[in-house]
Specification:
The longest helix is centred in the C-terminal third of the chain and has 17 residues. Helix 1 runs parallel beside helix 4. This protein has a single domain, classed as Beta-Lactamase. By secondary structure, it is of the alpha+beta class. The chain starts with 11 loop residues before the first helix and ends in a 6-residue tail after the last helix. A six-stranded antiparallel beta sheet has the order 3-2-1-6-5-4, with helices on both faces. Strand 5 and strand 6 form a beta hairpin. It is globular and about 40 Å long.
Length: 165
C-alpha cells in the first residue's frame, strides 16, 4: 500500500518534484488509466494549495467527457474549442488563464473558480483528454505550475494504458 508523506512543502519546483515522486509511487504496478487518473487528481488536490477542482476530461468521440476528479460536480461534456478545456484540447497546448471571467467563452461549471490551468493529454499527436485545475484565486497558476503539471501529465501517460471504451 502506498501512503503519502504529508503535503509537500518548499518552493514550487520542490513541491512538483515531490508530487512527481509520489505519483510515480501511486502508479507503480498499476496500468489502468481511470485508476491512475483518480489517484493523480486526488494527489494534486491534496498536494497543491488553493485549488477548488482538479481532474480529468477524457476524449470520447468528438467531445471531452468528465473523468475522475476532486471537487464540486462539474460539466459533463465539453466540445473541443469551447471554454478553457476545449481550447487546450483543440489547440493541443496548455492553457493558463489568470482570470477565467475574462476568457472568451469560459464555461462556468463552478462560479467560485477564478483561474484555471488545463494541460492536454497527448499520446504522440493523438489527444486523449485534458488535466484541468481550477482555483478560487485569480492568478493562482503561473509558468512553474504549468511546467509541473505538464510533467505530471507525462508521468501519468507513461504509466497508464490507453483509455478503453
Amino acid at each position: 500500500m502506498f501512503e503519502t508523506s504529508g503535503r509537500p512543502e518548499g518552493t514550487k519546483a520542490e513541491i512538483y518534484e515531490e508530487l512527481a515522486r509520489q505519483a510515480s509511487g501511486l502508479f507503480h504496478g498499476e496500468r489502468d488509466a481511470i485508476a491512475n487518473a483518480a489517484n493523480l487528481a486526488a494527489l494534486i488536490a491534496w498536494g497543491l494549495a488553493d485549488l477548488n477542482w482538479a481532474g480529468f476530461y477524457i476524449l470520447r468521440g468528438d467531445e471531452l467527457v468528465l473523468g475522475p476528479f476532486v471537487g464540486k460536480p462539474a460539466c459533463v461534456r465539453i466540445a473541443p474549442g469551447r471554454g478553457v478545456c476545449g481550447t487546450a484540447a483543440a489547440e493541443r497546448r496548455s492553457v493558463l488563464v489568470e482570470d477565467v471571467h475574462a476568457f472568451p467563452g469560459h464555461i462556468a461549471c463552478d462560479a467560485a473558480s477564478a483561474s484555471e490551468l488545463v494541460v492536454p493529454l497527448l499520446r504522440g499527436e493523438r489527444l486523449v483528454g485534458v488535466l484541468d485545475l481550477d482555483s478560487p484565486l485569480k492568478g493562482r497558476f503561473d509558468a512553474e505550475d504549468q511546467s509541473g503539471c505538464e510533467a505530471l501529465a507525462r508521468l501519468y501517460l507513461a504509466a497508464s494504458d490507453p483509455f478503453q471504451g
